[in-house]
Write a structure and sequence with these properties.
This protein is α/β, with parallel strands linked by helices. The chain is built from 16 helices and 16 strands. The structure holds N-(iminomethyl)-L-glutamic acid (NIG) and fe (iii) ion. The site of N-(iminomethyl)-L-glutamic acid has 13 residues, from α4. Pfam families: Amidohydro_1. Catalyzes the hydrolytic cleavage of the carbon-nitrogen bond in imidazolone-5-propanoate to yield N-formimidoyl-L-glutamate. It is the third step in the universal histidine degradation pathway. One of its GO terms (molecular function) is zinc ion binding.
Length: about 425
């Protein structure tokens, strides 16, 4: 049984008190311990505190220091393994050609309507075999890990038929088994209307509710169900139909809400009891009030605004209104091809007016709540899974200050050093 004693951290960010998503001023409280230490046994944290506290706790439990591995983190910052609660991890190919089209004046929706965008990635993903998709996604997971990310949510949505949606979800399952990063699965058959159903979108909605959802549930391939609720994609009414069917079958609803226009997706998320509402670049004031009241986690994706050259979601306004905010990369081939959650944290500070402490809460505790995992991950507390990152920076403010860099030194996942 492997034992680790990590000591000397300049700042150990515990994020303790993670029983519910953090809101308002709580988002600035990182539970910082100076001269911080952590003791880990197997895959679990057994003690957190100052060096003195943790050493005495560990000695009581272990008796001697024999067979205890020691890591000196003097001068460093330690925090929970980062969590990315919104990615489109599994797909084939890339779309740099569309970036070029957008930089020459076309819009994202124009490209999608002309059969590009999500539909072009769907074509390539359908043509790819499981092994090929696994290999491409593993390369992305390697990059996530180097960025300190130890858990990601991953959506289907580039299959858009029963056969290919299930194939994508089987890839997700294999990734979770074969790669150290933990992968949490979301079914998103409602990512776009496929070409074959362009003229009868409601028939595609029925295919999702009557065939895809039951198969996803019976094969236990996902925990969550997401819908791209947007004009020209799935209406509020269609989204509600899909999410109600998903909920009745045991999947937890999530929504791509108010990304390109104020569509009413946030209000739907609150009404239906979604665990998160994501994007929200164009959310209305009523939408924000509804999210705050229902305590739906707002997952904000600054990389998407950056890459689509759109105005950023108003993170400041949402936090001040009492909405629990999380951050994510949205990692996908069309609107945010990145695995750098660290860059997202920087963008959120500089373009969403979030504070350096709030962005850390947003990629740990609140991200864990957005994927229903806060009982195990997102904070450093005794009994929690031993997922942590050691940054080679003297204090957490450096993560915002020294921008565009990667100061991750080591990453522990389930008690094992994986970076
Ligand atoms: O989250 N909004 C919809 N889906 C993705 C984009 C996917 C793509 O362009 O391939 C998003 O931004
Ligand atoms: Fe997305």
């Amino acid at each position: 049984m492997e034992k680790w004693l990590i000591t000397g951290a300049n700042q150990l960010l515990t994020l303790q008190g993670a029983g519910r998503p953090k809101t308002g001023k709580e988002m600035n409280d990182l539970g910082i311990i100076e001269d911080g230490a952590v003791a880990v046994e197997k895959d679990t944290i057994i003690a957190v505190g100052t060096r003195k506290e943790v050493e005495s706790e560990a000695r009581k439990r272990w008796g001697s220091w024999e067979k205890v591995n020691h890591m000196d983190a003097t001068g460093k910052v330690i925090m929970p393994g980062l969590i990315d609660p919104h990615t489109h991890l599994v797909y084939a190919g890339s779309r740099e050609d569309e970036l070029n089209m957008r930089l020459n004046g076309k819009t994202y929706l124009e490209i999608l309507e002309a059969g590009g965008g999500i539909l072009s990635t769907t074509q390539r993903t359908r043509a790819a075999g499981i092994d090929e998709l696994v290999e491409q996604a593993k390369a992305r997971l390697d990059r996530f890990l180097k960025n300190g990310v130890t858990t990601v949510e991953a959506k289907s949505g580039y299959g858009l038929s029963p056969e290919h949606e299930l194939k994508q979800l089987r890839v997700t399952k294999r990734l979770n088994e074969e790669h150290p990063v933990e992968v949490v699965s979301t079914f998103m058959g409602a990512h776009a209307v496929p070409k074959e159903y362009q003229k009868q979108p409601d028939a595609y909605v029925r295919l999702i509710t009557d065939e895809m959802i039951p198969r996803v549930v019976s094969e236990r391939l996902a925990e969550f169900c997401d819908v791209f609720c947007e004009r020209g994609v799935f209406s509020v009414e269609q989204s509600e139909t899909i999410l109600r069917a998903a909920k009745a079958a045991g999947l937890i609803p999530k929504i791509h809400a108010d990304e390109l226009e104020p569509t009413g997706g946030a209000e739907l998320a609150a009404r239906i009891g979604a665990i998160s509402a994501d994007h929200l670049l164009k959310v209305s004031d009523e939408g924000i009030r509804a999210l705050a009241k229902a305590k739906v986690v707002a997952v904000l994706l600054p990389g998407t605004a950056f890459f689509l050259m759109a105005p950023f979601a108003d993170g400041r306004k949402m936090i001040d209104a009492g909405v629990p905010v999380a951050l994510s990369t949205d990692c996908n081939p069309g609107s945010s091809p990145t695995e750098s959650l660290l860059l997202m944290m920087n963008l959120a500070c500089f373009h969403m007016k979030m504070t350096p402490a709030e962005v850390i809460t947003a990629v740990t505790v609140n991200a864990a709540h957005a994927i229903g995992r806060a009982d195990r991950i997102g904070s450093l507390e005794p009994g929690k899974q031993a997922d942590l990152v050691v940054f080679d920076v003297p204090n957490y403010l450096h993560l915002t200050y020294h921008y565009g860099s990667n100061d991750v030194e080591r990453v522990m996942k389930k008690g094992k050093w994986v970076v």
